[in-house]
Amino acid sequence: MPTFRRLPRRTDALWLLCLALYILAGAAIAPFHGDESTLMIMGRDYHYLAVEGDLSKLLYDGAWRVNPHEQHLRIVNGAISKYIYGWLQALNGIDPGDLNRNWHWGRGYDWNAGRGALPDGDLLRQARLASALQLALAAAACFQFVKICVNRPTAWLASALFALQPNMLINGRRAMMEGSHILGMMLLLMAAACLIRERRWRHYVLLGFCGGLAIAAKHPNAIICALVYLACAWKPLGQLAGDWRRSSWQLLGLALAGFITILVFLLLNPAWWDDPLAVAAAVVAERQKLLGNQVDLFGGYQSLAQQASGFFEFAFVGARQYFEVAAWNDYPVITAQIAEYESSGLGGLLFYGASGRLGLAIMLLCGYGAYSLARDEGIMREIKILLGIWMAGSALWTLWLTPLPWARYYLPLLPAVILLLSCALIRLVQLLTSLRYASADGVARLD
């Protein structure tokens, strides 16, 4: 698009700065979530590691004899966010004994508040800013990823939709794992796009490093990592019989990246150091148990039709969800926070998620966006393979394996929806512009 070509490159940085300020501005007033209390107490691991230097408190105990609740939280959750929150606690001189208590989901808001489960206000605000900053960096990574894969105008629109998506903002601004989760995923995708554009050794190292960070941020990113590695290996595997020397070096580079991914993940997760295989099995078992308990307590999907309906609601309609437990509808303090948040102008595109018809339109536009990407001769075939494997794999994984109608579980799919929607809208603008110029040229010829 000619307008974007005339804009200097520094306007990209200014654009991303504006989006970052918007994301950060709403962090302090985001409605509270009980998991924020849990993430605050998980920050104790930073104290054990960096302040006390007692590694024994972090190692996995297969007999579950010492602090089983701490160990459960440690192995089923990501590491990045808890280290950040623990670092903030250390900066504020807060010892683990002075932290809030864990949130009890079987009890109400007042009961939890009365027993000291609410985090310290100043610490919570700092932790939210740290999470929102990661979401802002994720928006910048989204911009760069789309710019590398598609073009600059699409990157501008995609980064805006990313930064204004209500569920992305709600969860990314809270002191939870979602800011780290989404940032890790976007950095991984950006690194993969850089590698495909130019297969240099530094890009293999970058891919490996970003993969380790992504999985350490939240374990489900391991699926995204596997999809990305498959896409990066597609061409060298296909050309192994013809150009075996170059393909072998490229596969060796991916093996190096995989080793770095595992190494970075393990460095950030001391609980795995004694017996990685036993911990991996325990993580799978504990996560399955956790999901089963959530389904039993809060109700999950009962059929494929319900899963498809939930997929449509959260991926395309964008139904907003401030809490997953219905009882929170009755807490005046939470409803007041939601009202303040939505009236502030910082809640993103609040009309997004209000209409099933709009969701249907977005789904159709995403289909057109996929068609446009497939037909675009200006996009490398390998980039198309990366986008196709990532999007299709993410969609199938989310559809089949998400057991609950919780918006948080659909966040990893939103960047794919945003990219397809942005491609479709930019393409429609280009078509309308070309039609307008063609019409004007026809009138000129008649004159």
Would you mind describing this structure in some detail?
It is a single chain. The chain is mainly α and 447 residues long. It has helices spanning 2-6, 10-25, 35-42, 44-52, 68-76, 80-91, 109-114, 121-149, 152-164, 166-173, 178-197, 201-217, 221-238, 244-267, 276-298, 304-317, 332-343, 356-375, 381-401, 414-446. The longest helix is centred in the C-terminal third of the chain and has 33 residues, at 414-446. It is globular, with a radius of gyration of 23 Å. The model has no long low-confidence stretch (mean pLDDT 92).
- The residue ranges in which pLDDT falls below 50 over 5 or more consecutive positions are none
Helical segment count? 20
Q: What is the strand tally?
A: 0
Class from secondary-structure proportions: mainly alpha
Query: How helical, in percent, are the residues?
Result: over 70%
The string of secondary-structure elements, in order, is HHHHHHHHHHHHHHHHHHHH
- Profile the largest sheet: none
Distance between the termini: 28 Å
In angstroms, what is the radius of gyration?
Answer: 23 Å
* Overall geometric form: globular
What fraction strand?
Answer: under 5%
Overall mean pLDDT stands at 92
Secondary structure layout plus pairing:
Layout: H1 2-6, H2 10-25, H3 35-42, H4 44-52, H5 68-76, H6 80-91, H7 109-114, H8 121-149, H9 152-164, H10 166-173, H11 178-197, H12 201-217, H13 221-238, H14 244-267, H15 276-298, H16 304-317, H17 332-343, H18 356-375, H19 381-401, H20 414-446
